[in-house]
Amino acid sequence: MSIRRNLLVALLSALLLVGLAASAATYFAARKEANELFDYQLRQMALSLRDQTLQNRDVLFPDFDYDFIIQVWDSAGTRLYFSDQNISLPQSGLGFGSVSVGGEDWRIFTMSDGINAIQVAQPMSLRRDRAATIALRILVPIVASIPLFALLIWMLVGRGLRPLGEIARAIGAREPSSLEPLADGGLPREVQPMVGQLNGLLARLAEAIETQKRFTADAAHELRSPLTALQLQLQLVERARTVEDRTEAIGHLKDGIRRASRLVEQLLTMARLGPEAVQAPGVVALDRLGASVLAEFEPLAAAKGIELRLGHIEPVQVDGAEAALRTLARNLVDNAIRYTPAGGRVTLDIYAEDKSALLAVTDTGPGIPPQERRRVFDRFYRLPGSGTQGSGLGLAIVRQVANAHGATIELGEGDADRGLRVTVRFAKT
């Protein structure tokens, strides 16, 4: 596909068709005008002869080739005069008419002076030839201008598409790492939206690359500590002399492996999530998804002595990627269980409010001070003095999924001003 070629083909074809139509219309109009002019000449010739005295042809008309012949008839139908003795045309009625004599068509005009009938005739072949000659002379400038218009169209199309070529050259001349916006000054109005979208894409790409760079640096920093701890714990296992020391060291090593495994799992989740997580969204029943996530965490909650229950549940649907929304719900429930002490309670509510669908997780843990609620969404940030092992990625993952779905997150106090309530507000389908 070539815009230039398509434009040239379309415009030149339109020019050719319009030129042919105009030429044909001009040709036939010119022929019609020429024939009317010849008819006018025949009539004027007859009028000029009406008051003439009939005499010998050589006296009335000098000896040269005429493109018309004249005949005069009396009232009895006797031919009194004829200008060409080699051609005899029949008498016709008054006015214009056509007759065929000897295989040739003639155009005739007949008028009466009250006594005689004057008839002036002209061969149709001669009229056609001369009419065609006049029409063709008129057509020459029109036909000659078509190549000139074609050249102008070719030049104007090339000039009109030049900004696209300049943009392509500007992009091609860039280094792979150059993500600065393209200059949009002086561009045609039709090209500016495309350049604006390209600049928007470059800005999003630069932000995504910068985010990945920060994530890689943070991940490398965060993995260093648990890996170092695992090495130390492994050394403690090797140095253990008694069964009790070895058992204790192996227990610490298992705990370290679990923490490292959870950190790696969350890092992989963060790397996997992003705007592309909802590229192929569907309709997700949020109530059924929440119930299945709660059933998944029931054994963990029971092991810690925490009551895990469904609160106010309504059938609501949202547009989104089910796997990403499941990750959001799992991290909220997991965080609530993690920070809620034994004997506490974690409640999941899913309901509709106005045009929104809400997913809320409420716990009876220590909560989050208002001054810290903005920072807890940062990657690898841990609440000071929480006393709970974690990687600081749970709420960061929740925010990333929520942003990808156009949802908002609100942090508030739980029931009776205890604990924490995390509410995610989606647009209801």
Helical content band: 40-55%
CATH topology of the largest domain: Beta-Lactamase
**Total beta strand runs:** 12
Shape: rod-shaped
Q: Which consecutive residue ranges, at least 5 long each, have pLDDT under 50?
A: 56-60
Q: Total helix count?
A: 10
State mean pLDDT (0 to 100 scale).
Answer: 79
Order of helices and strands: HHEEEEEHHHHEHHEEHEEHEE
Give the CA-CA distance, first to last residue. 40 Å
- Under the CATH scheme, the architecture of the largest domain is 2-Layer Sandwich
Query: Major sheet, described briefly?
Result: 5 strands, antiparallel
Query: What's the gyration radius in Å?
Result: 49 Å
User: What's the number of domains?
Assistant: 3
SS strand fraction? 15-25%
Topology (SSEs and partners):
Blueprint: H1 3-50, H2 57-60, E1 69-73, E2 79-82, E3 95-101, E4 104-112, E5 117-123, H3 124-160, H4 162-172, H5 192-239, H6 243-272, E6 282-285, H7 286-296, H8 298-304, E7 307-313, E8 317-320, H9 322-339, E9 345-353, E10 356-363, H10 394-404, E11 408-413, E12 420-427
Parallel strand pairs: 7-9
Antiparallel strand pairs: 1-2, 1-5, 3-4, 4-5, 6-8, 9-10, 10-12, 11-12
